[in-house]
Model the fold of this input.
Amino acid sequence: MAQSEPVAALEAVEVDYPGRGRALGPFDLALAPGEIVALVGPSGCGKSTALRLLAGLESPTRGVVRRTPRRGETAVVFQAPTLAPWMSAQANVALPLELAGVAAGVARDQARDALARVGLAQATDARPAQLSGGMAMRASLARALVTRPRLLLLDEPFAALDEITRRALADDLLAIWDEARPAIVFVTHNVEEAVYMAGRVVVMSAGPGRSAGETTIAAPVPRPAAFRTTPAFRDAAETISARLAQAMGARA
Amino acid sequence: MLHTPEYLLPTPSAVAAALVENAGPLTASAGRTLVMALEALVAAAAFAGLLALGVSLSRTLDRAIRPLAVGLQVTPVVAIAPLFVIWSGVDHPERAIVALAAIVAFFPIFSGAVRGLGSPDPDLARLFQLYEATPAQTLLRLRLPSALPFIVEGAKVASGLAIIGAVVAEFVAGSGGAQGLAWRILEAGNRLQTAKMFAAILALALMAAGVHVAFQALERRALVWWRGR
Done:
């Protein structure tokens, strides 16, 4: 069976910041095409740094970052929606396409489609200030998906939202993933969210972050109804929580 | 009642009478001062904008220009005014007045623009980097729009300073060539027409207040448009 090349990989990367010491590493992570990986770890363990390395926004101090996505094939979603307040939702979503040189009219149409896919067809002309937290995050997701990325990186995207909205967006994201199957790396504090979203959950130790173990979640994606009550889900959640507590230095 | 001489402290009714009696010339002079201040504001905005752009794009320019800009701000304009009056010539004091008012109005706009151009959300800047935006795209679609609130606030502060600059410069020039409100105050003072002085000062205060209110409203409108609510 042919070994497919990882979409992106971190090989023994270390990141040192001048004056702040080592933030991450040595750390390894390989991402297969279409795979969903969750990164869970304590604050300050370098999860966001790892994400920026995968995005190609930063270079490691040591180690190698391998990336196969070409220009425009990577997308990032941050914890804040990070929409430009002076543009409408539609203009915000069209921005990545326009920066890549796509004609304005075509970009606008594709932006409208992307907003419809995340359930915001009615809000195309709204400004970010007029959107609720959940709607703004959906718009941010639409912007990330409009270029049909091969690699989608999310840095605690639902952390600022209430539980019901988190669950709805988790299901929406998995449904959208099912259409184009990008590789996804999803950073979160929330262990249950990680188990729900990912096929593989990597726990990171306290800073400088290193891998403290991986758990594979063998269940179909998108998840079946009541997945959160299945024994497989609960076992995985408890294993990962214990590993995380150990990584944070508390008694398991 | 208090037996203060009329030339030291005129009664309010005397001031009101002077205001009504000289309404024509005072309004015309208020207009002259206002026009000079606005010309200075436009010149300052153009120069400050260009310089701020240069400073934000080039580290070398930044290190070269910042100390000069700060030096310009802290130098009292009354000290350099006589020089400008000589340079502009006896027959054209309004050139010196506009130039000096522009110098005074320069720094708030420059400082606001520099701050604004450096203010974009770092995560939004990362997205521009991710999508490999050109420096021109980043300037036009991220940094300039992000800078708008700061520039508008700087312009509002500068508008008040431009009026002060125009008045101070006209005092220093000491000639009636520009026919602004400062000259009216000087002229009345020279003749001990204190009520008329008060009237001119009142006219100046009203004009400055009007400009402030107008710019305040402009700022609010601009921010509502920018923010979307």
